[in-house]
Amino acid sequence: MKSLLILLLLAVSSLAMRQQAVGVEGRVMCGMKPAEGVHVKLWDEDSGPDPDDVLDEGYTDKFGNFRLQGVETELTPIDPVLKVYHDCDDGIMPGQRKLKFKIPNSYISPGGVPRRIFPVGVLNLETIFPGEERKLI
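The chain above was modelled as a monomer; its predicted structure follows.
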């Protein structure tokens, strides 16, 4: 009886898990020049015991453009975040500047492919953003 109850609970919890997709695209500049080769990551930032998940990552092209999309299966809604790691206007500081942008929940889609891609726009990396951090290597 006890093992049947455990099996039933596992089955119900696995049915409650749902696949969710999200995507983001944009362009980064360093002043008036496209920021080529900037590392960009799409994360699901979780609170509590569940670790954060990298959904996708890549580097900007020669025009500073990027496009990321990813999928995660979770019980609760995912918390998608774009992180940008760069050295624009950074001098000789150790590590890289790290920017973080929350993606609106309206861009989270059920299933394995995002229905809409969040257009973050053009970001000038010379800007000092509130809450900016550093990623030390």
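The first helix runs from residue 2 to 16.
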